[in-house]
Design goal:
Blueprint: E1 34-35, H1 36-44, H2 52-55, H3 61-72, E2 77-78, E3 90-95, E4 100-104, E5 118-124, H4 128-161, H5 165-177, E6 182-186, E7 189-194, E8 197-198, H6 209-212, H7 223-239, H8 254-271, H9 283-294, E9 303-309, E10 314-320, H10 331-343, H11 352-369, H12 383-398, E11 403-409, H13 420-429, E12 435-441, H14 444-448, H15 450-471, E13 495-498, H16 505-509, E14 514-520, E15 528-530, E16 533-535, E17 539-545, H17 553-577, E18 596-597
Parallel strand pairs: 9-13, 12-18
Antiparallel strand pairs: 1-2, 3-4, 3-5, 6-7, 7-8, 9-10, 11-12, 11-17, 13-14, 14-17, 15-16
Helix pairs in contact: 3-4, 4-7, 4-8, 5-7, 7-9, 8-9, 10-11, 11-17, 12-17
């Protein structure tokens, strides 16, 4: 199976907590007879899709020890059927979550849910000496784990001694509720709050793991309970709730948790944030210092981003040392020269930031004056909307994406209030229809037909509007958000995802296999301030590939560049809407089902205009609100 091939919509006969049976990817290839190490790696990496450096972190300690020994003994063989290996001492199997186990045949397979099933990879006749080697490696890992667990418990003991533990536990529960997907292993236990499975907090049927700790004396907490609460608390302190997703689909062990916290801090220090994290600090002070490092990204040459593996929801933060892409430095001028010359009246290329700001204000002045915009597709109803669509189209072309999008709030003026309660009421009254999604595709209509292309466009537009509705309350101070309102913390940094069409019906329907998202305002820039309130994740640029190659970090930088272009649009618009006597301006275009397809007409003799565009009208300079 080609790991880059598109995954079709699958109705799984076997049940998975994730909703999609990941074990299907261990069949074929190196599974079955042959090298035990190769078979283990094939199963561990989901048939070559999951990078080995991340996949290893999903293993339990005994499984990790066994894999290391297998690697040292490449001649060790695996047999597909136990009947063909009567001396078998080890069995390899994968559960529906895609987690590999290498365990003694005397042990029953691990099950993470009553409906969980396993797929047997094969059996290994490991001699006593080799089993002893595995036991020794396992003992060494247990020793590291015990040391790390003691350090973590000592820090949580301090929280308990200060009488802060009940408040910390409530904060952890609250933070968990507002992350889209949290799921991790602790030894052979699976904890999650995902679409199809909840056991970390209460659901309609059962009391959650964390919730039950409210009534349990701290001195009776077991090691797993100490680790989960301490780790989640420290992860939030180090980078808000998005840090929880670092351990999605992998093992949350004490040693790996401390190691990962150190790796993140070291990456920031190496990139030049100017703030080191002394190892002698208490765990939670270390976490707070890591958080302080993230505030120093403004104006720095490095970029924080997240790598996402869609098969198990893992989201791992990385640091890109340089923000220089392979794209031409004058890409902005190539894209907007004609608009700039006509609307601003200057034929000399300005700096990118200044140029986009001047262009945005020129378009704004025409929208304020009521000058019709004859540019863009039929989805566009104004000059600023034309700029938005052009930025998304540019991102789609620059990354070789199948389609791109950008979403935000239609009526920003309703946020212009200096009363916190009034602002909270406005945000709580919003519905998904209060938002819009600008959608641009590249030849979807010629390739897929108008009906399928329209289905993808409409489903994406609705999903992004729904997501934006979830994100906007996360900008409010926590006491201002109603307990009845479902919301998530807004995205802050760019991300790059692979195999994102798993588990989520909307992603599968829209064939979101590979994606890049760059939220705005970018973290290197100030937050978008509206009437004194600071907003992050207010808009974005996203691109998607339905098949082919994964996006690269160069693609991330190209998409982020377009997000920086959009910043000028939102800064100009919000500044105007806060000015005395401003007119009502809102996004009325980009209705669901309306979009631009960049595909060329089938007739080679036809005029080569993008599908969805209407003929451009002469640009007229307008009187009115000046740029």
């Amino acid at each position: 199976m080609d790991p880059r091939a598109h995954h079709p919509t699958v109705q799984n006969k076997s049940t998975s907590i994730y909703g999609f049976d990941v074990s299907r990817y261990v069949s074929g290839g190196s599974a079955g007879d042959g090298s035990a190490h190769d078979a283990a790696v094939h199963a561990l990496t989901h048939g070559g899709m999951y990078p080995i450096d991340h996949a290893v972190d999903a293993l339990g300690l005994y499984d990790r020890a066994a894999l290391a020994v297998f690697q040292r003994h490449p001649q060790l063989e695996i047999t597909a059927l136990q009947s063909d290996c009567p001396q078998a001492t080890l069995q390899l199997y994968v559960n529906t979550l895609g987690r590999l186990h290498i365990r003694p045949v005397s042990q029953s397979p691990v099950r993470y849910d009553e409906a969980d099933t396993t797929t047997m990879v094969g059996y290994v006749a490991a001699a006593p000496a080799l089993l002893a080697e595995i036991d020794a490696a396992h003992t060494a890992l247990l020793a590291l784990e015990a040391t790390a667990q003691a350090e973590i418990k000592a820090s949580l003991d301090g929280v308990h001694a200060r009488g802060e533990l009940p408040a910390v536990l409530e904060e952890v529960i609250d933070h968990i509720e507002h992350v889209e997907s949290v799921c991790f292993f602790v030894r052979d236990r699976f904890f999650a709050l995902i679409e199809r499975y909840v056991n970390l907090i209460d659901d309609k049927r059962n009391k959650g793991f964390l919730s039950a700790l409210r009534d349990k004396p701290y001195d009776t907490w077991d090691a797993d309970e100490v680790l989960v609460v301490a780790a989640l608390h420290a992860l939030f302190l180090s980078g808000r709730s998005v840090r929880f997703e670092e351990f999605n689909g992998i093992q949350l062990s004490a040693h790996r948790f401390l190691q990962r916290l150190r790796e993140i801090g070291d990456a920031y220090s190496a990139a030049g944030c100017g703030l080191d994290v002394p190892p002698e600090l208490d765990l939670f002070e270390r976490a707070r210092t890591v958080r302080q490092q993230t505030f120093r990204a403004v104006g720095q040459p490095y970029l924080r981003y997240r790598w996402i593996y869609g098969m198990n929801f893992q989201k791992s933060e990385r640091v890109l040392p340089s923000m220089e892409s392979t794209e031409s430095p004058d890409a902005w001028w190539q894209e907007f020269k004609e608009d700039y010359v006509q609307l601003v009246g200057d034929e000399q290329p300005p700096s990118e930031h200044v140029g986009m700001s001047l262009l945005a204000h020129a378009c704004l002045s025409r929208d304020v004056a009521g000058v019709p915009c004859g540019l863009g597709s039929d989805a566009v109803n104004g000059w600023l909307e034309y700029l938005m669509e052009k930025c998304v189209a540019s991102a789609t072309r620059a990354t070789g994406a199948d389609y791109g999008m950008s979403s935000s709030l239609r009526n920003i003026r309703q946020l212009v209030t200096y009363d916190e309660k009034a602002l909270s009421d406005v945000i709580h009254a919003m519905t998904p229809a209060s938002f819009f999604t600008c959608f641009v595709s590249d030849r979807l209509i010629p390739r897929m037909g108008a009906d399928d292309a329209a289905m993808i466009a409409s489903s994406v537009q609705k999903r992004m509007m729904f997501n934006r509705w979830h994100f906007i309350p996360g900008n409010l101070e926590r006491p201002l958000i109603s307990a009845k309102r479902h919301w998530y913390y807004p995205p802050l940094i760019p991300d790059i995802a692979i195999h994102a069409d798993m588990h989520r019906a909307a992603h599968n329907k829209a064939r979101v296999k590979y994606s890049v998202r760059s939220p705005g305002p970018d973290m290197s820039r100030p937050a978008l301030t509206i009437a004194g309130e600071r907003f992050r994740g207010f808009y974005d640029v996203r691109v998607v590939r339905m098949e082919g190659d994964e996006f690269t970090t160069d693609d991330v930088l190209r998409v982020r560049r377009r997000t920086l272009w959009l910043e000028a649009v939102y800064v100009a618009l919000t500044a105007y809407l806060m000015s005395p006597g401003s007119k009502q301006l809102q996004v009325t275009g980009f209705q669901v089902g309306q979009y631009l397809d960049l595909g060329a007409p089938k007739d080679p003799d036809a005029e080569q205009t993008p599908i969805g565009y209407r003929p451009a009208e002469p640009v007229r300079l307008a009187e009115g609100w000046a740029s």
